[in-house]
Amino acid sequence: MNLPAFGAYLRQRFPPVNMALFAILFGTVYSVAAALQAGPAAQRAWGWPEWLGVAATISFFFRLRVFDEIKDYATDLEHHPERVLQQGRVTLGQLQAVAALGTLLEVAWSVGMGWRAVVGWALAVGYSLLMRYEFFVPTYLRPRLVLYALTHILVMPLLIGWLWAAYAAPPLLTPPLGLLALLSVFGGLSFEIARKIRVPADERPGLDSYSRALGYGGAVAAVLLVLLAGVLTQGVLLQRLEARAWPFWLVAVLYAATAAAYGWSLRRPSARALKLAELLTSLFMLSSYVSIIAEIARRW
Fold first, then answer.
1. What keywords does the record list, in alphabetical order (predicted)?
2. Residue 188 belongs to what domain range?
3. H helices of the chain, where?
């Protein structure tokens, strides 16, 4: 494999900022497990198993990206010929080889963390394989973008469950796990909707968008409703953590700013306004996790 080309692919399709977010997601699950359901995470300092856990989490998401590249290769070849993969600078076979190496790391880490983690990993990977083959009904799912998104976002609670099983003390199925799972769903779904809203002039035949599926106003309303559900979930989790006031204010201000940005995009539809709103949606997801880690870290 040409390493500079692979680096270019990562910058384009799996950038470092995404990897950082996945690392923060791991840290959030680890922190909540330590704070609310004391297990292995509460009994030792952060060490090499945690760094391997971060790498395993990133690997899991990279494999999801490769699955998407396989499914969408023909469409992207037509609509995004400028991409590194479509130009042939890296190949699907090379990406699958990297994903396979990452899978070995995930297995090794899960085995090292105990049988519960192995079961959690197997469930998450099993579901992701169903996603890879679009639940064996691709012709039914693909035209139904909302249903497609809902079926695919459900991998997030399973991934959270995998990490939770590695660190939380039994019983595992508890309210903190449920809140983390919901937060991951609402955060992931809001970002998914936000990145596929386009002004009418930018809609392109053959490229799916929520603004086409739900209407421009409907897509904006959908992302704001999902974000609001995330705000409420975040609030309940912060209460359980006995958090200070600042995370509540941060989430509220970010939601208000996001709503204002989308309001602006409704009054004056433009790609610039939507890009700002998408950025704020991403910041909400990031701040949700970081504020949880920060509030737990102050206790240690």
1. Membrane, Transmembrane, Transmembrane helix
2. 174-300
3. 3-13, 16-36, 40-43, 48-79, 92-113, 115-132, 138-141, 145-153, 155-167, 175-194, 210-214, 216-240, 245-267, 271-297
Using the 3D structure, point to which of 169, 191, 213 is the last residue of a domain: 169
- Do residues 19 and 65 share a domain? yes
**Nearest C-alpha neighbor of 18 from the set 69, 65, 85, 70:** 65
Q: How far apart are the C-alpha atoms of 68 and 131, rounded to whole Å?
A: 9
Distance CA 20, CA 119 (A): 26
Predicted structure pTM score: 0.94
CB 154 within 8 A of CB 185: yes
Q: How many domains does the chain have?
A: 2
Residues 135 and 204 in one domain: no
For residue 274, give the CATH number of its domain. Answer: 1.20.120
What is the rounded distance in angstroms from the CA atom of residue 31 to the CA atom of residue 34? Answer: 5
- Amino acid identity, position 13: R
Tokens found for residue 184: 């991951």
Task: Return the structure tokens found at 154.
Answer: 């459900």
- One digit per residue, the tens of pLDDT, for the chain of length 300 reads 899 999 999 999 999 999 999 999 999 999 999 888 765 555 567 899 999 999 999 999 999 999 999 999 999 999 899 999 999 999 999 999 999 999 999 999 999 999 999 999 999 999 999 999 999 999 999 999 999 999 999 999 999 999 999 999 888 999 999 999 999 999 999 999 999 999 988 888 878 999 999 999 999 999 999 999 999 999 999 999 999 999 999 999 999 999 999 999 999 999 999 999 999 999 999 999 999 999 998 876
d(CA 94, CA 186): 33
Task: Pick the last residue of a domain from 169, 203, 238.
Answer: 169
